[in-house]
Task: structure prediction
Amino acid sequence: MTTESKPTIQFTPERLAKVQEIIARYPEGKQKSALLPLLHLLQEQEGWTSPEGMDYVASLLNIEPIEVYEVASFYTMYHLQPVGKHVIEYCRTGPCCLMGGEEVYAHLKQRLGIDTGQTTVDGQFTLKEVECLAACGMGPVFQIREKYYMHLTNERVDEIIDELSK
Amino acid sequence: MATKILTEHINVPGIETFDVYRKQGGYTAVEKALKTMTPEAVVEEVKKAGVRGRGGAGFPMGMKWSFLAKPEGVPRYLVCNADESEPGTFKDHYLMKNIPHLLIEGMIISSFALGANKSFIYVRGELMYVIHILEKAIAEAKAKGFLGKNILGSGYDLELVVQPGGGAYICGEETALLESLEGKRGNPRNKPPFPAVKGLYQSPTVVNNVESIATTAWIVNNGGDAYAGIGIGRSTGTKLISASGHINKPGVYEIELGVPVEDFIYADEWCGGIRPGHKFKALVAGGSSVPILPANLALTLANGEKRLMSYESLSDGGFATGTMLGSGGFIVFDETSCIVRNTWNFSRFYHHESCGQCSPCREGTGWMEKVLHRIEHGHGHQHDIDLLVDVARKIEGNTICPLGDAAAWPVASAIRHFRDEFMWHITNPQEATQPGAVYRGEMALV
Amino acid sequence: MEETKPQLLRVTIDGIQVEVEPGTTILQAARKIGPEVAPPAMCYYQPLKGSGGKCRACLVRVAAGSEKDPRPMPKLVASCLTPVQDGMIVENKTNPQVIDARNGVVEFLLLNHPLDCPVCDQAGECDLQNFAFDHGKATTRYEEDRRTFEKNDLGPYIQLHMTRCILCYRCVYTADQITNKRVHGVLNRGDASEISTYIEKAIDNDFSGNVIDVCPVGALTDKTYRFKNRVWFTKPVDAHRDCPTCSGKVTLWYRGDEVIRVTARKNEWSEVTEFICNTCRFETKKTSDWTIEGPTKVSRASVISANKYRADAIKPSFGQRLAAAEYKPIHDERDTTQLSIQQLPPERFAKLPSAES
Result:
C-alpha cells in the first residue's frame, strides 16, 4: 500500500468548496477541528474511509496521517474496511432489545444470509451492529446512511430489503 | 393543562420553518434580551430560574454560567451538547428535529449572556439528517438578521456552527466533547482545569445540553421567577422525559417536575400504563447509567410515600433504595424482561464505549461484560456475583470521567435488587438459557 | 529542614510534613519526602508534558483540601496532577481505601497482561512488575481469555509487544515532544486500543529510540538487545561521548567486557533526564567510543543490584514510621445522600414497602 507522492483520491470540486467552507468555520490555526466533518465527507464520496483517503484528508488539514488514523479508528461511524452499497446499522442496545430487537435482527441476518460485520456476496448490503441511536421509543431501529427505520418488525424488514434490492 | 415550556408549539405544522416559528412568538426572547437586557441580567434570570443541567448531571445552569472565566482579550465559547447517546434518551433528537429554531433561539440568548461570538452545536454524527435541519434553520435565522453581524442592530455578533460527531458515546462527557470538537479522539480531560477556565482551544467555555439551552427563551420571556414557580422544590421547571420499553405509549413527554412516577407510568396523558396483560417489574428512570429499581421502589420511597419525578425524590434513599433523574431516559420493564440479560446488554454498551484512557474503566468494563455474558449464557459461578460488585466498586469514583460510575451503577444496582434472579441463572443454567426463559421467582411485580 | 519561607506551601502526607513551591503536585511533594512515601506512577513521567492521570495508580485521598477550606475531596484524586494547597492533608499508605483502589488498579492492569516476565527483556526494571510486587496478588480472579493483537513491526530498532502495553501514552508524548514527526499513535478505543502505525511503517528518526526508555513495561524494547541478557546480570556504567546530535550522556550496560546495551540515564524515579539519539543508543557499542565516568548509582532496592525482589529493601526511617503510626486518618464524612456503591450497607435489600397488587 503506497501512500507517498500524489494522493490517489481527490474530492470533487463541489466537495472541495465545502472543505474550504468547513475549515473557515474554525478560528485561525484550529483547522484540525474540521477533521471529523472532512472524514464524513470522504466517506460520503468514497463509501469508506480508506488509508489513501485519510492521508489525503491529512494533507488538506496539514496534519500528520497518524493523527487522522487515531481519530478515524476511535469513532464507530467511519468504515475502515470497504462496505456494501447499503450499510445497515442496527441498534443492539437495551431499549431496542426490549421491543423485540433481537428477534428482528436475527431475521435480518437470516434474510441477508450474513452475520454482523459481513457484506453480501453481491456487494449490496453490509450489516453493522451499533449502540444506541437515540430513538429508543421507536425501537427496534436501524439506520441506513442518514435515514432512520423505526418500529421494525420482520415484515417491515422484508419490505425494506425488497425495496432496496430493486 | 400542564405548563409546556419547550413543546407547546411542537405540533404546529411547519414549525421547523422560521416563519411559522416566528408567528408562534418565536425569537421574541432574542429581541427582548438583545434590545432591553444586559448579558448579566440574562444570567441573573437563568440563575433565578434554578434550571438544572438537563444532560444528566443536574448541575444548576446559572451557576455553571457564573463560573465562566472572563479574562480580557480571550474569546469565550458556548458549546451545545447535542451528542445525546445515553441509552433510553431521545428527547434532544425529538426537539431538534421538530423545532430547531427553539434551540437556535436559546443559543443566541445563551451566547449573548456569556459573551460568546462563536458558538457550536455538537450533534452526534448519526443524526446527520438533524444536522441538515439545524443548518437550514440557521441559514434562515441568519437571513432574517438573527445571526451574523450586529444582530437586530444591537452591536452583538454571533456565528453558529453545527459540528458532527463521529460515533462515540463518550463525547457526551463535556471535556471529551471539546477534544472531539478540536478534531481529536474523544478522550476526557483530567479536571481541573474545568472548561469554564480552559475549555475549547484552551479558552473559557460553557457546555450545556440542548434542553437546558432551549429553556432560556421561555425564561427570558417570562422571567426566572416564573420558571422557578413551576416544578417542585429545587427541581424547577419542566423536563423532557424519553419514555420507552413496555408501556402503551412510548415517546417524549414534557412534564412539570414533581409528577408522581406512578401517574407518569399509568396516566393516559403520558405512558398510558404497562402494555396489556403484563405487569410492571423494574424501572430505569434516567438513562441506562442510573441504578435500576424494582417496581415497588420505583413507585414508592422507603418510607412509603409516593416517589415523584424530581431530582430529589428519585435519588431518595441513595444507592440502597434510590436512583437518579439523570437525562430522563425512562425505560420500563415488564415481567417478561430478563434483568441479567439487560444488565449484560448495558454492560456491553459501556465496554464498547469506554475510551480506554484510564485503566479501571478500560479493563473493568470489559471484565464486567465478560462475567455477565458468562452468567447469562449459563456459565456463571456463585462467586461471580460478589466479584461483579467488587469490580464495580473498584471502578466507581476512581476514573477520569463519570463513564466509570455509569458502567458500575447498573451492574451493582441490578445485583442489589435482583440478586435472586442472578442466582437463578447461575444455579439453573439449563433452564435459564432456554430461549425466552425468564426468572419467575418471588419478586414485587405491580 | 530549612527555615519556613512564607511563599512555600505546607502539605502533610501520611503524617509527614513537607514544604513545597506553589504549583507542586501531591506526587512531587511526596517524592520530595522520599521513595517510601511516593505513590507509584505508571503513566506520569515528569519530563513529558501532558503525561499522567491515566493509570490511576497514584490515587490518594485528600483528607483536608487546605488550611482555608479543610473539607475533604469527595473522591480519590490522581496525585500526579493535583496541585497542593497550603495546609493540605493527604492520605497515601495510611488510608485503606487508597490501598484498596491501588490493588484494584494492579488487578486491572494485569487482567490482559501476558505475565511473560520470564521471557521479557524488561523484567527487573519494569514499573508494572514493581507495582505488582507492592500491590498485587499471586492469584487472579480473571477467567476470561486475554486480549491479543496482530503483530506490528516498527522497524529495525524497536520491538513492539502490544500485549504487554498498559496504554500510558508516554511513547506518544515522546514522539510528539522529542522527535520531529510522529508516525505511531493510539488506535481504536477502549480495551481494543493499541499502539500502532496503522499502515506498517518503521519509526524512523534520530530520537525514536527514546520510546524504549520511557516505556514502563516491556511493550517497547530494544531489538539490538533482545534476549541478550537479564538486566540483573549486567553492570551499568555511566559514560559520555562527543555527539553532534544529543548530549551523549548515557548508561552503558556491560556483560563482562562487552557493551550489550546503551540507554539514556535515569533518575531514581526511572525517568530519563536527558534524551539520547539513536546513533549513541544503537550504533555505538564499543567501549573505545566512550569516556567512562564510573558505575551507575543503583538503588539498593532495585532488582538490578539485589538480583531479586526484596520486600525489606525500602525501609522508611524511624521518624517516618512513627509519623505514619501516629497519624489518625480523618473520618470520611461523606454526604450519605450522594449515590455511591461504596456506601452500600452490608445487608442487601430485603423487603421494603411493597405496592403489590
The first strand of chain A starts at residue 86 and ends at 91. Chain A touches chain B through 45 residues (CB under 8 Å). The mean pLDDT of chain A is 95. The longest helix of chain A spans residues 35-46.
